[in-house]
Design goal:
Rossmann fold, alpha/beta, 9 helices, globular
């Protein structure tokens, strides 16, 4: 019988803990497939964040380190600087971890041009801790801490991480993609590959922001969540490449 698909060796056999309809699992698979296809699984070191992805060290079949909340870029910086030539170092972070408590870490890692790759999962809400408003929550979005909807006069406007980081000289590759349908999942995998290749070539800091779902804390079913990403999130967080120094040099 012809084999048409095999599970990537980049993931362990441990069942994930994610809620039905959450696209963390899809994103895990994309990262793992890229690392396997690049033949760098043995050389990769991942840094797990705090949030829904806190147990990602159980799922990725690479060396993994657990960082304190928001500190994954700092930990990744240390690993990469100690092992600059023979390790592919990546962080896997949610928007609460990266854009709130870890904002200083991500901005300065990008500004310094640290040769790490960041997988940034943006679902516009705090997931693990109870659905509080995140820096990426949309205007009008109801959360546990903005029950009447995010108000620009009270909580300010959403922070667009890809746009922000792309202004920094140390950033080499920044792209925002989505996980809400198959064509965009395919594009997401290409972006992740490009980010890791940027690191492998020693060009500087790379980040892929992936719009993701959170059915539980959004109060939607899985299909509705996918639609919400497309209809509500994408207009606020436009998809595309925000920085690519390889194209700027041509």
């Amino acid at each position: 019988m012809e084999i048409v698909f095999e599970k990537t060796k980049g993931l362990t056999d441990t069942p994930t803990h994610y809620c039905p309809g959450c696209t963390h699992g899809i994103i895990h698979r994309l990262v793992a497939e890229v690392l396997e296809e690049m033949d760098v699984l043995e050389d990769a070191v991942g840094v797990a964040s705090v949030g829904c992805s806190v147990l990602s060290y159980e799922y990725f079949n690479t060396d993994m380190v657990q960082a304190a909340h928001g500190r994954a870029p700092a930990v990744a910086t240390g690993i990469k600087r100690v092992l600059p030539n023979n390790r592919i170092v990546y962080t896997y972070q949610g928007d609460g971890d990266l854009a709130s408590i870890g904002m200083a870490e991500i901005v300065h890692a990008a500004a310094r041009g640290e040769k790490i790759t960041v997988i940034f999962v943006n679902n516009a809400i705090y997931g693990m801790t109870g659905g509080q408003m995140a820096p990426t929550s949309l205007l009008g979005q109801k959360t546990a801490t903005s029950p009447f909807g995010r108000d620009i006069n009270v909580q300010g406007a959403p922070i667009r991480i890809s746009e922000l980081l792309s202004t920094l000289d140390g950033a080499a590759y920044i792209e925002r993609v989505s996980s809400h349908d198959v064509p965009n999942i395919i594009k997401a995998k290409k972006a992740i590959r490009k980010a890791f290749e940027t690191q492998k070539q020693g060009l500087g800091f790379s980040l892929v922001e992936i719009l993701s779902t959170c059915p539980t804390n959004w109060g939607l079913d899985p299909n509705e969540s996918l639609d919400w990403v497309k209809e509500a999130m994408v207009p606020v967080y436009p998809l595309g490449v925000y920085k690519d120094i390889t194209k700027e040099e041509k």
